[in-house]
Amino acid sequence: MTAEQLIARGHKPVMIQHTEKEGWQEVGDAPTTPAIAKPAEHLKGHKSIAEMVSTHTSVWREALAHMLTNKAYDRAYVEHELKALGDIEVACAAEQSPLNAFEVIKAAMQADPAYAWAWHCNIAMAFYDAAGETLNKHQIGNEGAARFMRVAFDVDVTQFPEYQALVKGWAMLEVVEPGLPQKGQVWLDRSGDRYTVVGMTSGPDAGKADIFPRAVFYRGPDGREWARTLDSWNESFTREVQS
């Protein structure tokens, strides 16, 4: 299986590796997100301790409020218990807060690389889908996901062997840009002379196209090599010779 076939697997993240003897090989699907654990037995069917005690705290609060109206009970003790109930509810709410949940997920990713890689693959596919027909979107999706994982969870997936295998694959792929002259193609100029494309410069950084315009390198029938800007090329070369 070629690197192109592996990287073009579509929406199913896979783990790949490259060896000198076997070349690119698929070694299995990317780890999936672990299933959510069932409630622990000690919670008696509840999702959390907060949920478990919520009903009991409300019932006990009503009972304490009634006790306050009865002089037979120590008022200071009852008020202390009411305050303690409030403290319990605040503590339970803190345990259930989004911030605490985020820290739990973050710690799980840092402790389990396979779990972190599963998150990375799913985030990368979201970038991949949003890229539409963008060239090299597989690489862009993974690079974007890697940045997210580093900023959000302090996990550097670029050091994972799975990510480094992808980087090797990207290096082996030559991105072909539709409509542009490609290395090895033969084009005709307006005079009918044949020219072979040697290569092109990469696209400039954003905002620098006027300073560093893209250029085409090509070889004439006499073997001499030339270069001109892509705009000039498009003005002088009108069609490609199909071989």
Which percent bin holds the helix content? Answer: 40-55%
Distance between the termini: 28 Å
Helices, by number, come to: 8
Please give the number of β-strands: 7
Sheet with the most strands, sense and barrel status = 5 strands, antiparallel
Low-confidence stretches: 1-14, 31-39
Q: Report the portion of residues in β strands.
A: 15-25%
Q: Give the spatial strand order of the biggest sheet.
A: 6-5-4-3-7
Note the run of SSEs as H and E.
Answer: HEEHHHHHHEEEEHE
Q: How would you sum up the global shape?
A: rod-shaped
In words, what does this structure look like?
By secondary structure, the chain is α+β, with helices and mostly antiparallel strands. The chain has three domains: 3-34 and 99-172, no CATH class; 49-95; 186-241. The protein is 47% helix and 16% strand. It has eight helices and seven strands. The chain has helices spanning 3-7, 49-68, 75-95, 98-111, 113-130, 137-153, 161-172, 230-236; strands spanning 14-19, 23-29, 186-189, 194-200, 215-219, 225-229, 237-241. It has a five-stranded antiparallel β-sheet. Strands 1-2 form a two-stranded antiparallel sheet. Helix 5 (113-130) crosses helix 6 (137-153). It is rod-shaped, with a radius of gyration of 32 Å.
